[in-house]
């Protein structure tokens, strides 16, 4: 379909515009519509890529925030490291006694 306007132009030039200017108007209109459709398609594809990129970045930020929130919550649930070391030292002391 991309080569059709060029093929029509060659055919019309070879037959020296057999139907007068009507074929040139049709060719020009077809070429213009093809070009506009391609431009529109490229514009939509570009905007789609930009939107997908923005969505991916937003998802990455959201996932990072959720992981950080889960880490913070887990840290709040666990006892402080100094208490764990103190308990481990006490257990070692009790094992050595018994």
Residue ranges: pLDDT <50 for 5 or more in a row? none
Order of helices and strands: HHH
Q: What's the quaternary structure here? A: single chain
Q: Please, how many helices?
A: 3
By DSSP, the count of extended strands is 0
Distance between the termini: 90 Å
Structural class: mainly alpha
How much helicity do the residues have?
Answer: over 70%
Instruction: Give the DSSP E fraction (strand runs of 2 or more residues).
Output: under 5%
Mass-distribution shape: rod-shaped
Task: From the alpha carbons, calculate the radius of gyration and give it in angstroms.
Answer: 36 Å
Major sheet summary line: none
Mean pLDDT across every amino acid position: 84
Could you characterize the architecture of this molecule?
It is built from three helices and no strands. By secondary structure, the chain is mainly α. The relative contact order is 0.05. The model has no long low-confidence stretch (mean pLDDT 84). The chain is 86% helix and 0% strand. Helix 1 packs antiparallel against helix 2.
Summarize the structure.
The protein has 98 residues and is an all-alpha fold. The chain is built from three helices and no strands.
